[in-house]
Design goal:
11 helices, Rossmann fold, binds UDP-4-deoxy-4-formamido-beta-L-arabinopyranose, three-stranded mixed sheet, alpha/beta, 41% helix, globular, seven-stranded parallel sheet
């Protein structure tokens, strides 16, 4: 089966490409390299022995998409391509709405035109807004706290309506929690351009000495140690979840949380990173970051029940693999 992976050179996309190839799928990658590097293509070749077909295109460009759909028999799409920095989305809402929502519409249009019946969408726990954890797929979605989250919620609604109107178009909406870690080879991992917004890559840069110290955004939350609690999931577990989703996708609308179901505080994560990797990560407590929620973690039981998928890698694996990639890169 041929799977088109948009954003396939990015952090989660590249790890998913590895799992798809290792499960016998043919992969075509479309990526505009705005938040990824062309070198990842050779790394994927090195890891899997296969060099995926690659198109450097913007997924909002229907004509460019048409070149791909008219040249290859595509059996399924996994749509990762999108801007994903929460803070940046507040500053540049139009860029986020255009890129993230128009790309979803353009891709869906091509799928309907060319009879592609499987669409897996990279969504986010952000769509739940500030609701009590554990978060379940049947919860009503609340207003999100930023344009990035809104683009994910809008894309979910568009895909659900397209699936209702086209019986041959099945969608799987995968709501990620906090993906961290890296492939065990250390060849691919999270390598954001510039100063990282997210905790794990920031910690890795402090450990490498590229950044002076970590700012911990608040220690006055109602949590085990006052710092924010999140559901960190190894990116390889997340990638395996996508293979299960595409394998089990046959009809209608399917929604799954991809998380571990366990909450970890900022300081628990930092201290685990320090202990496992025997490195120093200086940090200081500063004010809370606007828009942050105190606690966010998944109820992942639906994915386990319906997809036969469950995260298996633990926090030590996540911080060890993060550092193994960071110190090579
Ligand atoms: C985690 C915790 C921070 C940085 C976001 C998006 C989500 C997904 C993952 C795309 C929080 C604290 C962080 C730092 C800190 N993105 N922190 N100092 O905000 O849970 O989720 O990224 O899919 O959609 O919303 O992740 O890594 O930014 O923060 O103290 O320098 O670490 O306050 O408690 P977040 P994060």
């Amino acid at each position: 089966m041929n799977i088109l992976v948009t954003g396939g050179l990015g952090f989660i996309g590249s790890h998913t490409v590895v799992e798809l190839i290792e499960n016998g799928y043919e992969v075509i990658i479309a990526d505009n390299l705005i938040n990824s590097k062309i070198e990842v293509l050779d790394k994927l070749h090195e890891i899997t022995g296969v060099k995926p077909i690659f198109y450097e295109i913007d997924v909002t460009d229907e004509d460019k998409l048409e070149e791909i759909f008219s040249s290859h028999e595509i059996n399924g799409v996994i749509h990762f391509a999108g801007l994903k920095a929460v803070g940046e989305s507040v500053e540049k809402p139009l860029e986020y709405y255009y890129n993230n929502v128009v790309s979803t519409m353009a891709l869906s249009k091509m799928c309907i035109k060319y009879g592609v019946g499987k669409f897996v969408f990279s969504s986010s726990a952000t769509v739940y807004g500030d609701q009590p954890s554990p978060l379940r797929e049947d919860m009503e979605l609340k207003e999100t706290t930023n344009p990035y989250g809104e683009t994910k919620a809008m894309s979910e609604r568009i895909l659900m309506d397209v699936a209702k109107a086209n019986k041959g178009f099945a969608v799987s909406l995968l709501r990620y929690f906090n993906p961290i870690g890296a492939h065990k080879s250390g060849l691919i991992g999270e390598d954001p351009n510039g100063i990282p917004n997210n905790l794990m890559p920031y910690v890795a840069k402090v450990a490498k000495g590229e950044l002076d110290e970590l700012n911990v955004f608040g220690d006055d939350y109602d949590t085990i140690d006052g710092t924010g609690v999140r559901d960190y999931i190894h990116v390889v577990d997340l990638a395996k979840g996508h293979v299960k989703a595409i394998e089990n996708l046959s009809k209608g609308i399917n929604i799954y949380n991809l998380g571990t179901g366990r909450g970890t505080s900022v300081l628990e994560l930092v201290n685990t990173f320090i202990r496992v990797n025997n490195v120093d990560v200086p940090y200081k407590i500063v004010d809370r970051r606007p828009g942050d929620v105190a606690i966010c973690y998944a109820d992942p039981s639906k994915a386990e029940r319906e997809l036969g998928w469950k995260a298996t890698l633990n926090l030590e694996d996540m911080v060890r693999d993060t550092w193994n990639f960071a110190k090579i890169g």
